[in-house]
Specification:
Elements: H1 2-27, E1 67-76, E2 86-90, E3 116-120, E4 126-132, E5 137-138, E6 144-145, E7 148-154, E8 161-166, H2 177-180, H3 184-190, E9 193-194, E10 200-202, E11 205-207
Parallel strand pairs: 1-10, 1-11
Antiparallel strand pairs: 1-4, 2-3, 2-7, 5-6, 7-8, 9-10
The protein binds fe (ii) ion.
Fe (ii) ion (FE2) binds next to strand 7.
Length: about 210
């Protein structure tokens, strides 16, 4: 009888500890996956780096393309908001051309597109910016990069994060070499979410503490 009790106890505590390990692994969320910087991080000085990429100071026109807002929160792995994070972002214009002297793509430049911004996350780690859906661009005669926005994210006490944000429902995602080699979970974390408003996308970023 004593033996039975002991065995049941051992069995129950084993089930209990497996459950605890499982619960812990669910709580420990993965941080936003990393991606390469790519060759087009801006190298020309640019005074204007505000959160509206659809207008350039001193010009009257609007950037060409589909205007969208991207918003989200920067969080740590326990999902606590992280304020005062530097969010450095850059992207191709709607034609798939970077405002970068080394971009040899023959697609047109857009003088009304700001192309680069440096923002700070504010209260509750929130940030937002206005931009256009970047165009896809060729990387060889047969391959294209799917639309994406590059991010460099940094804050003292956290691992710096270099990544690329993707858009949902882009046919080219399935053919993009960098996107394709991520797991389904990583792809989900790197892809902005649609919202009830068709021009607003949500993209939360999860940082690792040092
Ligand atoms: Fe790129």
């Amino acid at each position: 009888m004593e033996n039975m009790k002991r065995r049941t106890f051992l069995k129950t505590s084993l089930v209990g500890s497996v459950a605890a390990i499982f619960a812990n692994s669910l709580q420990a969320r993965i941080s936003t996956p990393r991606e390469m910087e790519g060759p087009f991080y801006p190298i020309r000085p640019q005074k204007e780096q505000d959160a509206d990429l659809t207008q350039v100071a001193g010009k009257t026109g609007l950037a060409q393309g589909e205007i969208i807002e991207v918003f989200g929160q920067v969080l740590d792995q326990d999902l606590n908001p992280v304020e005062d994070v530097t969010i450095d972002l850059w992207q191709a214009n709607s034609f798939g051309r970077y405002h970068h002297p080394h971009d040899t793509n023959e697609a047109p430049l857009d003088e009304n597109f700001q192309a680069w911004a440096i923002l700070q996350s504010g209260k509750e780690g929130r940030y937002k910016f206005k931009t256009i859906i970047p165009g896809a661009y060729p990387i060889s005669t047969s391959r294209q990069r799917t639309p994406h926005i590059h991010f460099k994210i940094s804050k003292k006490g956290y691992e710096s994060l270099l990544t690329q944000m993707y858009f949902p429902n882009q046919v080219l995602n399935a053919q993009d070499n960098l996107f394709k080699r991520k797991s389904a979970e990583q792809q989900a974390m790197m892809t902005a979410k649609t919202t009830t408003k068709s021009n607003k996308y949500q993209y939360n970023i999860i940082l690792d503490k040092l």
